Amino acid sequence: MHKHPQSPRMLRWRPAAAALATAVAASAFLAVPSAQANEPADPPAAEQMPAPTPGFPLPTEHTQEAFDPASDFTSKWTRADAKQIMAQSDPTVAPGENSMSPDVTMPEIPEDFPTMNEDVWVWDTWSLTDENANQISYKGWDVIFSLVADRHAGYGFDQRHWNARIGYFFRKTNADPAKDKWNYGGHVFADGASIGNTEWSGSTRLMQGNHVNVFYTATTFYDIAERNAGGGGIAPDASIAKALGKIHADENGVTFDGFDHTNLLEPDGEMYQTKEQNPGFAFRDPYTFADPAHPGKTFMVFEGNTGGTRGEYECKPEDLGYRPGDANAESVDEVNSSGAYYQTANVGLAVADNKDLTKWSFLPPILSANCVNDQTERPQIFIQNEGGKNKYYLFTISHQFTYAAGMRGPDGVYGFVGDGVRSDYQPMNNSGLALGSPTDLNLPSESPEAPTPNQNGRQFQAYSHYVQPGGLVQSFIDNVNGVRGGSLSPTVKINFRDGISQVDRSFGQDGLGPFGYLPTNLRVGGEGHYK
Question: Half-sphere exposure of residue 435, counting CA atoms within 13 Å on the CB side?
Answer without folding.
Answer: 31
